[in-house]
Design brief:
149 residues
Length: 149
């Protein structure tokens, strides 16, 4: 799987049903034990336990599983501001930390990305595609990479 997606609730499909709207689809076509995502979010508010994005994993047999990505557990803001929030997320690894060469960095201590893992409850079924659904929060999920294991 290759690509970069910054998902924004304003890019959602007009008239889509429900509070979470599809904005991107990644074709997979593989059987896997797990899916790993390298990710962060951008923009306030930074609210622990807010659902940032829902990933809908579609299997080749037509069934699907949903995984809500929760702020503070699976992801945090790209820009780290010491004293404002923890460096780490509780259920994701801090995968990368660096310095940004753009913008006004006052109050930040660089940028970071998190690796969150979704364990596939049906590893014998082929994952056909992953649908990314964003909701009403103004946080913008940033997915830098995805790997099937």
């Amino acid at each position: 799987m290759r690509g970069l997606a910054q998902l924004d609730h304003r890019a959602s499909v007009p008239g889509a049903p429900g509070p979470f709207h599809p904005v991107a689809v990644i074709q997979v076509g593989l059987r896997c034990r797990a899916l790993h995502f390298l990710q962060a979010t951008m923009d306030d508010p930074l609210v622990d336990e807010a659902v940032v994005v829902r990933w809908l994993v579609h299997y080749a047999n037509g069934s699907a599983r949903e995984w809500p990505v929760v702020y503070g557990r699976h992801v945090r803001d790209l820009w780290w501001r010491p004293g404002r929030e923890p460096l780490d997320a509780s259920e994701a690894l801090l995968a990368w930390r660096g310095r940004a060469a753009i913008g006004d960095l006052s109050g930040t201590d660089g940028v970071r990305l998190f690796k969150a893992t979704w364990t596939n409850p049906q590893p014998d079924l082929e994952v056909a595609r992953i649908e990314f659904r964003v909701g009403e929060t103004s946080m913008k999920p940033l997915v830098v990479g995805a790997t099937a294991e």
